[in-house]
């Protein structure tokens, strides 16, 4: 099994870093909720002026894409996609998610959208190289 994963060790690390990022986002949203006196379970008001709203949206947006990232990483590994491409695209996804999170926290909407696009294009690239490997 190690021989299979060795070329993709950077992708596996990117998956772990993504999990850590999700944990950080969850903690930031929880602390923001506590500081704002938010009642647990109550909806968060949709207000970009509120850090609590932006923190919960950043976390929710990562949750929306992380399954695709994990599945595409595994697809790439199991189809023996070109490791350098898969590793690079996995880290592009991570960089896009980190940038998206920071820009959401700082309410930088255009930059946030740019980083979202980076992470989305990385996912598309992971799909393409996985399919290309499958078709070989």
Question: Can you describe this structure?
Answer:
It is a single chain. This protein is an all-alpha fold and 136 residues long. It has one domain: Four Helix Bundle (Hemerythrin (Met), subunit A), CATH 1.20.120. 81% of the residues lie in helices and 0% in strands. The protein has five helices and no strands. The chain starts with a helix and ends with a helix.
Descriptive labels:
single chain, 136 residues, mainly alpha, Four Helix Bundle (Hemerythrin (Met), subunit A), 5 helices, 81% helix, 0% strand
User: What is the CATH-assigned architecture?
Assistant: Up-down Bundle
Q: Which series of helices and strands comes N to C?
A: HHHHH
Total of helices? 5
Query: Which shape, going by the Cα principal axes?
Result: elongated
Q: Under the CATH scheme, which class?
A: Mainly Alpha
CATH third-level topology: Four Helix Bundle (Hemerythrin (Met), subunit A)
Largest sheet: none
Which regions contain 5 or more consecutive residues with pLDDT less than 50? Answer: none
Helix content percent band:
over 70%
Give the beta-strand count. Answer: 0
Task: Please indicate the percent range of residues in DSSP E strands (runs of 2 or more).
Answer: under 5%
Helix-and-strand structural type: mainly alpha
- Average pLDDT for all residues: 95
Intertermini distance: 22 Å
Architecture blueprint of SSEs:
Elements: H1 2-5, H2 9-36, H3 51-78, H4 83-105, H5 109-135
